[in-house]
Request: fold
Amino acid sequence: MRILVTRPQVPFAWGGTEVMTDRLVDELRLRGHEADLVTVPFKWYPGARVLTQAFLWRMLDLEEVDGAAVDMVVATKFPSYLVRHPEKRVWLVHQFRQAYELDGTDLGQFDESSEDRALRRKVQALDRVALGEATRLFSISQNVADRLERTTGLRAEFLPPPPQELDYRCEGYGDFVLSVNRLDRAKRIDLLLEAAALDSSLQIVIAGDGPDRRRLEELALARGLDGRARFAGRVSAAELADLYGRCLAVYYAPVDEDYGMVPFEAFLSEKPVLTTTDAGGPLEIVFDHRTGLVVQPDAAELARAAGWLREHRDDAASFGRAGKAIAAEVTWDRAIERLLA
Amino acid sequence: MKLAYFSPLPPERTGVADYSALLLPALRERLDVTVVKQGRKRAPRGTDTALYHVGNNPDAHAWIVDALRRRPGVVVLHDFVVHHLVAGMTIGRRNGHGYLDTMEREHGVVGRLLGHGVLDKRIAPLWESRPEDFPLAWFVLEHATGVIVHSQAVHDLVRAAGYEGPVWVVPHPAWPVPAVEPARVAPGPVLGCFGVVNASKRIPELLRAFADVRESHPETVLLLVGPTSSGFDLDRRLQRLGLDERGLVREGWVDEQRLWELMAGVDVSVNLRHPTMGETSGIAIRSLSLGKPLVVSDVGWFSELPDDAALKVRVDDQEVDTLTAALELLVERADVRAQMGRAAVETAHRRHDLERVAELYAAALEEAAGGAKVADAVLREVSEAAADVGISPEDAEAGEIARRLAEVELGR
Reply:
């Protein structure tokens, strides 16, 4: 089949969606399909630009390319699913969250003016139309599917994407807790720093980069974490596999996250995951005292949980192995079979 | 957003009053709502928009339409046919000319002539004899900045009437099921029919079908609950069909508590209708919540009920036979009843969930308040971009852009 995968592009940004869609194209090609990626830059402000930039996708004609028909489009993330195609499959990474659960929070975008309120509703209306057109609708997590049904009435099938390919291994359970994430406020890295401030024996390594890095580094400095909190920045695949392999546990507790590859990657390295009760998608696979520890979003509780794992390394290993059994079920063979069925 | 809310409310005994009593608390969690006192014809100062609940009953809704005419706003059209309302607001106020003008505007010279016939008492009042042929909805629609309806069928009627403003389909919310003890009126299968007993509820057809069902299933009972319309001779019909002493249990008007008890105690809920005024049935919604299999007429809103929760009976020459077959199926097959009951509950939860309905209301009202500005901003940016690359409004490309905008409901 000739298949196009669509995703928006935020220039200079790179994250889970990019990893997932690049890999999807590769995996489709491996299975004999002619596949390619279509991206369009996306800027969502100010004012109605979120709509006009989204509308660019609607003007694309992807039914045929260079005289040959395109059999299927697989769209992923707002606004790339506005694209038109008679066989439009959507593998929903997420909607425009500022118009939904982030509205009215620090992470929101729309104010209380009648224009902004209407703008937010228009984004929701766009979703109902564009996602309603899909011949099949999948979501990367049950959390995303639930949110979609709550807000639009549309139902999506849960289809988890497999994590990136790394040289996953377990080289024991060291002394540090690893955070792998983009550094922005919603990822809540500051909670881990505050936990380290409360427990002088807790060491952390923070892999990843992002707009919140400076604030987080200043916080670490203010809390006197020098030497115990290392900001590793964007790391190579080999370095990431090494960090996963050596850490005690992996911290992953964004606010109401859609899905998150990180817990799967941690599990493939046989590491337990430390998360919070309000983390959303990760809670679909991180079960308290089975595959990790789930605590209230509170620094003291997090510090206690990390300390407990340090003192119970056999349990940490057991949680990690249980997680690996879950992660091993999520394969590209299964994902693509369902996606194209 | 500050909203002025015009609606009948309890203790008025109308479906719309019950509806608003259910909706208001959930809506207040999302918007700053001021309920306008009955009879007041002006929206309070400082409100961003006004919401007007309009139904066909002039006693309950005339003051609301008066207020709408002073300040246009979003109309919740509970009935598409509002002829009775119009008659009450024109003839009922000694304004025969107003009635004639409305009839002529919506139905031409023929409408005006028929109006004269009504005023001169030469023909029966059209709001009683043929309201569905003369709905007079434009009387309300012309003042609406947006319209909320409960079904796709009424949405289509509003569009067919020429209304070009925004129209939102918002399902009727489901009541939470109260903790009641089901009242069983008979040991055998009980078919329940609730609401005013009259011809438009297809009671004559239901009685005939039930008489047929009783021949093969004599243990079956029909529970008929609700006041009888004046002029509808129920007793004579029952006598004629031999149902006056056997098989029928009759209760008149009952309070809400008793209604739920009786509804919870039936095996099948029958809710027929023809002609339809474009209304939604609160009784059918309650039946869904209770998980009762429904038998309905295949008209209007009722047609849009899911097939796995409701058997639909066409209003045609075979109506009684079809109805008999549907009732027999449900009397005989407990498994079908159970399956349909599960689908009914699922429908109530998914489609008619109160929080979802309130969210749809908030969305519609926020769109109504600021949507025009957003549409202008979108069109301005798109048209400027098109002009920058030399596309003028007359070009085919401009038509393509307009089509694509319309597909995703952007712009106007």
